[in-house]
């Protein structure tokens, strides 16, 4: 019985004076290319804008963090070294975003060559995974320091 109810809803009917295909209570436009073109234009505008903003703030923020961490490098702790590595990794990850901005500004056309395409994608994902790894390592170090404070005193100073 359920099978007949579902197939009845999915019955596609078309009228001669209507330019839409009817699928039960839903109307689906037959002119999909107009909808997709506007979605692609919207995506290109949003991605290029968001990546540009992330690039500016990411370069400034990670550059400042790197500057502060290098100025206070004499405080050698595991957490400080993790933060230094995280700042470098994020800075490298953000530095690949201008290439993606160019890709979306050019409406999905890559004009910078195959080698640069591969290197930028590789650098983005490697640095992204490194950032996740360093955050995980910092969290694990903090976990050990909180749960076992006496046994892990050497984690506080390197």
Automatic annotation (TrEMBL):
It is a multi-pass membrane protein. It is found in: Cell membrane. InterPro entries: Cyst_leuk_rcpt, GPCR_Rhodpsn, GPCR_Rhodpsn_7TM. Keywords: Cell membrane, Disulfide bond, G-protein coupled receptor, Glycoprotein, Membrane, Receptor, Transducer, Transmembrane, Transmembrane helix. Pfam families: 7tm_1 (PF00001). GO terms for molecular function: leukotriene receptor activity. Its main location: membrane. Residues 61-158 form the G-protein coupled receptors family 1 profile domain. The keyword Transmembrane helix applies. GO terms for cellular component: plasma membrane. It comes from the Eukaryota. The chain crosses the membrane at residues 50-70, 82-105, 125-148. This is G-protein coupled receptors family 1 profile domain-containing protein. It comes from Cirrhinus molitorella.
């Amino acid at each position: 019985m359920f099978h007949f109810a579902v197939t009845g809803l999915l019955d596609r009917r078309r009228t001669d004076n209507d330019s839409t295909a009817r699928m039960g209570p839903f109307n689906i436009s037959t002119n999909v290319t107009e909808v997709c073109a506007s979605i692609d234009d919207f995506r290109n505008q949003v991605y290029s804008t968001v990546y540009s903003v992330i690039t500016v703030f990411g370069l400034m923020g990670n550059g400042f963090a790197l500057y502060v961490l290098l100025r206070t490098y004499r405080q050698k702790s595991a957490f400080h070294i993790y933060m230094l590595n995280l700042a470098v990794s994020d800075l490298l990850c953000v530095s690949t975003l201008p290439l993606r901005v160019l890709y979306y500004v050019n409406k999905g056309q890559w004009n910078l060559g195959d080698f640069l395409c591969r290197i930028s994608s590789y650098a983005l994902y490697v640095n992204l995974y490194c950032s996740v790894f360093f955050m995980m390592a910092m969290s694990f170090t903090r976990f050990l320091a909180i749960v076992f404070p006496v046994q892990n005193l050497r984690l506080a100073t390197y």
